[in-house]
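Figure S7 source data.
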Amino acid sequence: MGGGGREHALAWKLRQSPEVTELYCAPGNPGIAGIADCIDIDPSDIVELADFAENLSIGLTVVGPELPLILGLADEFGRRGLPVFGPNRAAAELEGSKGFAKDFLKRHGIPTARYHVVSSMDEAKSVIESDDVGMPLVVKADGLAAGKGVSIVANREDALAEAAKMIEDRQLGSAGTRLVLEEFLEGDEVSFFALSDGHHVLPLVSAQDYKRAYDGDEGPNTGGMGCICPATNLKADTFKMIVKDIINPTISGLAAEGRKYQGLLYCGLMLTSEGPKVLEFNARFGDPEAQAILPRLKGDLLPLLLEVAEGRLGKHRPEWTREPAVSVVLASGGYPGSYETGKPIKGLEDGTIELGEAAYVFHAGTKNEDGNLVTAGGRVLAVTALGQNLKAAIDLSYQHVERIQFEGRQYRKDIGLKALARLTGG
Ligand code: AMP
Ligand code: GLY
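Tokens for the predicted glycine complex:
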């Protein structure tokens, strides 16, 4: 379920499974249409989706985006005995409410930034004036805000202004009626991915996400402009520490609170001088992280997802290619602000996924108009390449990026470069 680049990557990987006989995607996109039957149901129409799955006796439903999970899709499917990959509403609250996630972390002694949750300007003022979490301060909307819910402010005045935008002016609607005011953490960011069936945990891989719109980590936050997998800033012992001190207690803490987590847990972390600390959780694969992670997975994805859905994780062990992956997003000019759509896409044959050896293109915001592929969203395509080393993967991915043209095309030219400089001591 879903219609972005992440779902294209999931559908592509699942299509390769010998166990997959039929594949449907709601609503899908022109890339997905080449490998699955797209059905015109919105991912938030939970009852309609469950009816569809029930009528066709669908063996597994894989949920791409967070919204249907937070709305309770897995609960509805569960009630009807339909296998589903993705946490239920109570477990997905880890992504749906940052206030819930912070209180949960605190209850279970899992490392995260110091914070206060506030739901009025008076409360916000008293926290900001008390200087309890210091400056700079991170102001976060409690609810889903599509990458627009976090701002980092340098002084009290700006903190109050940010809080007022959300609480008084309702700039983010109901997502911003409650806020988390959080200590600013210094360090390197890393994303961590694990599967859980509610009890068992299977760590997958790490990745580094490029969230800002422009080169050099400048400009506004976006859904993600690129990604490298694995992260180059994560040592093996830190990987183990994250599993032991963060992922395992999160899954067991949720289970103890009656919120059994069955799905993919995406944990955003800051590697601080005091060790890794949680920045945020997501209840699903990342976009474009999935487009970089899945091409590195050797073998079949389906048995892993089925084990999660059926609560029996442990038999299948994923194997990863040693080759790193780099994924670069091609966006419409102006993204994440306003942009035009309907621009013809050149250099990409309809239905192409594999761009030659070890390079792939995943569709996000595209559509077919009179038989031509045109842009239809902010993030349009993601190009992923694997290489013998990070440099080879970066070079190959940009070779293909530069070939694919559309008016206003916008992309970051520095995906992976900082990590490469660190690796080579540059
Ligand atoms: P989030 O949506 O919570 O991941 O926040 C978006 C981005 O804001 C993160 O990727 C970080 O770059 C930054 N950020 C969030 N929380 C903090 C924090 N406590 N300290 C420093 N940076 C943060
Ligand atoms: N790329 C960030 C996310 O999927 O949340």
